[in-house]
Amino acid sequence: MYRIGELASSFKVKNDTLRFYEKHGLLTPSHRSESGYRLYTEQDKKILSFILRAKTVGFSLADIHELLSIEVDKDNNACADVKIVVDAKLEEVERKIAELSHFQKSLKQLSDACCGGSGSAAQCTILEALESDINNLRPEHHHDEQE
Amino acid sequence: MYRIGELASSFKVKNDTLRFYEKHGLLTPSHRSESGYRLYTEQDKKILSFILRAKTVGFSLADIHELLSIEVDKDNNACADVKIVVDAKLEEVERKIAELSHFQKSLKQLSDACCGGSGSAAQCTILEALESDINNLRPEHHHDEQE
DNA sequence: CTTGACCTTTGACTAATGTCTAAGGTTTAT
DNA sequence: ATAAACCTTAGACATTAGTCAAAGGTCAAG
Which PANTHER family match (chains A, B) (predicted)? Predict the structure, then answer.
């Protein structure tokens, strides 16, 4: 079991952040010592890891709470509701992946054009790099026009 | 050219948000009318699109500002600095993609286990699904039971 | 020319996500 | 058995990213 300071420092967050997550129902330590100290288990540690990882890819604490609340139970009649939530999150994740793949491509182009790279540096900003494959990747966008 | 309200409503953001981005150096309209109205070009529209997309994948406005400031110029002696920034962002993007791919796999498992899927629902929460990935990297069972 | 929908600015307000302070109790090492 | 380093709570403060309100200017339609 970990005390708050141990868990916090091992993830480079503040003790206060863990108390904050607890207050908001995201991570409640599984135990308390006799004197009231929070005691976190390995499972609690995994939950914290999940929270922090989900945050880095743009999920809010509310989103994360929802993700953590998912419990699949095939015999439960709320199952269809769960599937709706799961599938919605799955779609969101897939949209994010597509977005990031696009950024990745553009950043690679820029990186390759840097410092005497063979690239023409015709795309010298991320916007131009993004645009250079916008027509392949994002058919939703159409032509430029001026008013 | 678009006035603020046109651009804002076409991206479902508030006029105030555009003024906020301007104040923070993210998106300055290319023109002003004689009477002082902001006038946005197609290029400005692309910048806004970029800002909003980058936000959904977890970049802060400060990150986005940095991304927008990247300008590759092979003849410029600041080029190495640019490459450092670009490569750092590229790594960040790749970490995010890896994170999301992991989530995606887990959510798929949960979705498949839902509502009479053949899956054992042994992984009934996202945490368990995430963990099962660590041991068992084979996400292949198809569902065929009655619904 | 007036009306209403738009725009301007400045500055105050809000929500989400922490972070810090104060006043005190606990644990561990010397 | 006392200091150092932990922990507790409640509540104030900070930062990020907007959002709203007030007081007024602009523009197209009737």
Answer: HTH-TYPE TRANSCRIPTIONAL REGULATOR ZNTR, REDOX-CYCLING DRUG-SENSING TRANSCRIPTIONAL ACTIVATOR SOXR
Strand D within 7 A of A105 CB: no
Provide, in whole angstroms, the distance separating residue A29's CA from nucleotide D5's C1'. Answer: 22
With beta carbons under 8 A apart, name residues in chain B contacting A58: 55-58
Strand C neighbours among A 26-65, CB < 7 A: 33-37, 55, 60-62
Render each residue's pLDDT in chain A as its tens digit; 147 residues: 999 999 999 999 999 999 999 999 999 999 999 999 999 999 999 999 999 999 999 999 999 999 999 877 766 656 777 888 889 999 999 999 999 999 999 999 888 887 656 555 566 778 777 877 644 444 444 444 333
Distances in Å between the Cα of A111 and the Cα atoms of A103, A137, B64, B76 are 12, 20, 17, 14
Residue A59 CB burial class (10 angstroms; 0-12, 13-18, ≥19): buried
For chain B, which domains are there? 1-58 (1.10.1660.10), 70-147 (no CATH)
Contact B104 A89 (CB under 8 A): no
Torsion of Cα atoms, B3 then B55 then A128 then B46, to 10°: -20
**Residues within 8 A of A (CB atoms), B 14-43 only:** 41-43
Contacts for A20 with CB less than 8 Å, ≥ 6 apart: none
Distance CA A114, CA A124 (A): 9
For residue A102, give the 3-state DSSP assignment: helix
Select from B119, B102, B105 the least CA-distant residue to A73.
B119
